[in-house]
Write a structure and sequence with these properties.
Blueprint: H1 2-12, E1 27-30, E2 33-36, H2 41-57, E3 110-113, E4 116-119, H3 124-147, H4 153-168, H5 179-197, H6 202-208, H7 217-222
Antiparallel strand pairs: 1-2, 3-4
Helix pairs in contact: 1-2, 3-4, 3-5, 4-5
Length: 226
């Protein structure tokens, strides 16, 4: 990416600064998962073309079908370069050039990067909803394990923390959750606790089969986790 930055600044001078002009930030990389971002489509397309050029020099070709374009406050498409070999000669990189662009980058309303779901509206709802769906599906598989009376409770809590909580809380510290979203997380938490402690719903203990079993979420949260 150093070579990409060097070529971009030599041709177009200023790097994109979607956040701060004093600290240009235009890319994120983790292994071969790369994100490019820019406040305008032209700059983003130039960065993409330069990246394609330098990647091709060392034998790395982009998988065009797996690339995704998340449009924010725009409906303008961006395009891959005309060829993977040599400097790009398209009209974006060289204004006035008759060389056409390559194919458009596929547009996605939701993209997944490093396990986090990002949407055009930049809201936590998309990520939380998908994580809860995956977690509840996993809970369905693990329910016989949690409800078994032959397995120590501390082992169940370990599995709960390392599997279910790990799924639903991954990167949640970077989210700004609403009250409703926190309630959904609590609902999942108490459902698992009820499975592990063999406690039915409050409605069951108060209406269906009235008894003195403490069954509220508060009661469950106060029980020793062993």
């Amino acid at each position: 990416m150093h070579d990409v930055e060097e070529e971009y600044t030599s041709k177009f001078e200023l790097l994109p600064n979607p956040f701060s002009a004093s600290s240009p930030l235009w890319d994120l990389e983790y292994a071969d998962d790369t994100v490019l971002f820019s406040p305008n489509p032209v700059t983003l397309q130039r960065l993409l073309h330069i990246l394609q050029h330098h990647a091709a020099r060392i034998g790395l070709l982009l998988n065009l079908e797996k690339c995704e374009h998340l449009q924010l406050n725009t409906e303008q498409d961006i395009y891959f370069r005309d060829t993977e070999q040599g400097q790009c000669q398209c009209s974006t990189c060289f204004p006035g050039s008759p060389v056409p662009h390559g194919p458009p980058v596929p547009v996605s309303a939701i993209v997944k990067y490093l396990g986090v779901y990002l949407s055009q509206k930049a809201r936590a709802q998309t990520d939380i909803t998908k994580r809860l769906a995956i977690t509840y599906a996993s809970l369905k598989v693990l329910r016989p394990f949690f409800e078994s009376r032959d397995i120590p409770a501390d082992w169940k809590f370990t599995i709960y923390g390392q599997v279910l909580r790990a799924i639903v809380l991954y990167a949640v510290q970077s989210e700004t959750l609403t009250v409703a979203q926190n309630v959904k997380l609590d609902t999942l938490h108490y459902r698992v606790l009820r499975n592990i402690t063999h406690t039915k719903t409050t409605f069951y203990h108060k209406v269906v089969n009235p008894n003195d079993t403490p069954s509220s979420n508060m009661d469950i949260s106060k029980r020793p986790l062993t």
